[in-house]
Amino acid sequence: MNLVTYNIQYGLGADGRYDLARIAGEVAGADVIALQEVDRFWRRSGMVDGPEVLADALPRHHWVYGANLDMDASQDDGTRVISRRKQFGTMILSRWRILSSRNHLLPKWGDRLHHSIQQGMLEAVIATPRGPIRFYSAHLSHLGAATRLPQVEAIRAILARAPAEGGAWCGGHPDPDSGWIEETEPPMPAAAILMGDLNFTHDSAEYAALCGPVVPRHGRLCPRDGLVDAWVAAGQPEASGATTLKGGTRIDHCLLTPDLAPQVRAARIDTDSTGSDHWPLWVTLG
After folding, report:
1. In this structure, what DSSP letter does residue 12 have?
2. pTM here?
3. Using one digit for the tens of pLDDT, what is the confidence trace for 209-264?
4. Is residue 113 part of a domain?
5. CA–CA gap between residue 157 and residue 228 (Å, rounded)
6. Each residue of 158-204: pLDDT tens digit?
7. Is 132 among the domain residues?
8. Residue 18, SS3?
9. Which of 9, 165, 191, 211 is least enclosed, having the fewest CB within 10 Å?
10. What is the span of the domain harbouring residue 266?
């Protein structure tokens, strides 16, 4: 199973050219694709419906989109209002059916001077060949640890409570013919994979909150309710790799529940991609 996470910068490439078809080509080989910074009806990206363009270019993938930033972009032609939303969010595409989906808005920092936008985490329960798995595409604040840590705590809570909440609907209905139950109860599995532009590095407090703290004697501790970095599970040094053209280190991640970690076979960063100011992070599960 090949996974990829990619902050596509709404299709604006390293060459300054806007090209969603190029983005689609760079991720077409993946079974599950997590995208961030996907636009709908922004002037900067040509007023196109980004999710629809990407979906058309990947016709064998199912898809869901989560709008985190949602504002008016409607027009009035004098006879009718054309209702349209200017949106910015995350997207998940899958070769296999997406059984259910939710978009979780994360805590937003309000600032008087610095640009701060609503961020979120899109959830998709996917019917993979190895059974249902929860996949998440997330984009966290770029401002700093102070704005990301509340988002990380919200993510921890969402991941922890989801199995107990059940699927998109759960339980029976007193009237089987009411139309409320048209399929078997959708699952909400414990197994989960969090992908996205998390905007933090391996040595940050945010990473420690999700994957475990570092202590002098033993190094990285591994909490039983924590996540496992697929990059490390694949045998890569924790401090290695960079996922943006600016260099530095990894701020795009693929984190898994511990039950999935033994299935990780490989992880790589596609530094040949030119479709964004980030590079795609690929992970293979056996």
Report:
1. B
2. 0.96
3. 999 999 999 999 999 999 999 999 999 999 999 999 998 899 999 999 999 999 99
4. yes
5. 16
6. 999 999 999 999 998 888 888 888 889 999 999 999 999 999 999 99
7. yes
8. strand
9. 165
10. 2-168+183-285
Contact between 155 and 194 (Cβ < 8 Å)? yes
Structural domain contains residue 175: no
**Tokens 């599950």 map to which residue?**
32
Q: In this structure, is residue 178 part of a structural domain? A: no
pLDDT tens string 36-72: 999 999 999 999 999 999 999 999 999 999 999 999 9
Question: Residue 277 is encoded by which pair of tokens?
Answer: 């100011």
Q: By three-state DSSP, how is residue 154 classified?
A: helix
- Cβ neighbours for 31, distance < 8 A, ≥ 6 positions apart: 1, 2, 3, 94, 95, 96, 128
The owner of tokens 């921890």 is 156
Token digits of residue 180: 């409320």
**In this structure, what CATH number is given to the domain that contains residue 243?**
3.60.10.10
- Judge whether 20 and 14 are in contact, CB under 8 Å: no
Place of tokens 């199995």: 163
Q: What's the average model confidence in pLDDT over 17-21?
A: 97
- At 4 the pLDDT is 99
Tally of domains in the chain:
1
Percent of residues, the chain, with pLDDT higher than 70: 100
Q: Which helix (H) or strand (E) holds 134?
A: strand 131-139
- CA max distance for the chain: 72
- The count of other CB atoms within 10 Å of the CB of residue 56 is 12
H helices, E strands: number in the chain? 5, 16
End-to-end CA distance of the chain: 6
Give the span between the Cα atoms of 155 and 118, in whole angstroms.
Answer: 15
